[in-house]
């Protein structure tokens, strides 16, 4: 599929879209075939340390966590609404139990600038290089309602990824 590059300085994204338009997070290495993907609905986008970045959250219980820890890059993939069922599969099945990417009917392909794969079907691909991580510490919650997101006490690891490349279908 031909993709149109978007200059990072021209790219804009409204993270409030994540409430209704989930993204897939793809981590690993395309060339080695070692990768996994999951659906995300939490994240942020902006500028820090004079770099444009995306911030993503991954629980240590997720299979994708292993790939986020092992590899230095990840991609975020946005899809048209017709792919909602595919994203539901990526978010509800584990890659430990089988090939959920094939089950979702999606096609991994090489990214332009990073080792992590992207999806051929994605309407938008954001390629990132990890630059920082931090584990969520529940002793820092100022709003007591936040703890309700962690019934299993499986607090997320937060990754900051510098945006390396952006393209549209």
TrEMBL record:
Residues 32-140 form the Flavin reductase like domain. It comes from uncultured spirochete. This is Flavin reductase like domain-containing protein. Belongs to the flavoredoxin family. One of its GO terms (molecular function) is FMN binding. Pfam families: Flavin_Reduct. Gene3D superfamilies: Electron Transport, Fmn-binding Protein, Chain A (2.30.110.10). InterPro entries: Flavin_Rdtase-like_dom (IPR002563), Flavoredoxin (IPR052174), Split_barrel_FMN-bd (IPR012349). It comes from the Bacteria.
């Amino acid at each position: 599929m031909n993709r149109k590059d978007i200059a990072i300085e021209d790219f804009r994204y409204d993270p409030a879209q994540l409430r209704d338009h989930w993204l897939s997070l793809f981590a690993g290495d395309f060339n080695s075939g070692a990768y996994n993907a999951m659906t995300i609905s939490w994240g942020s986008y902006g500028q820090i340390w004079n770099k444009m970045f995306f911030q993503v959250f991954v629980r240590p219980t997720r299979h994708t966590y292993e790939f986020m820890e092992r590899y230095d890059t990840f991609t975020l993939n946005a899809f048209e609404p017709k792919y909602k069922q595919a994203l539901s599969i990526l978010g509800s099945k584990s890659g430990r139990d089988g090939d959920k990417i094939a089950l979702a009917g999606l096609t991994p392909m090489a990214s332009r600038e990073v080792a992590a794969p992207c999806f051929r079907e994605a309407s938008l691909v954001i390629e990132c290089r990890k630059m920082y991580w931090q584990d969520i510490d529940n002793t820092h919650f100022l709003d007591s309602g936040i703890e309700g997101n962690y019934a299993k006490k499986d607090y997320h690891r937060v990754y900051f990824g510098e945006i390396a490349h952006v393209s549209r279908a």
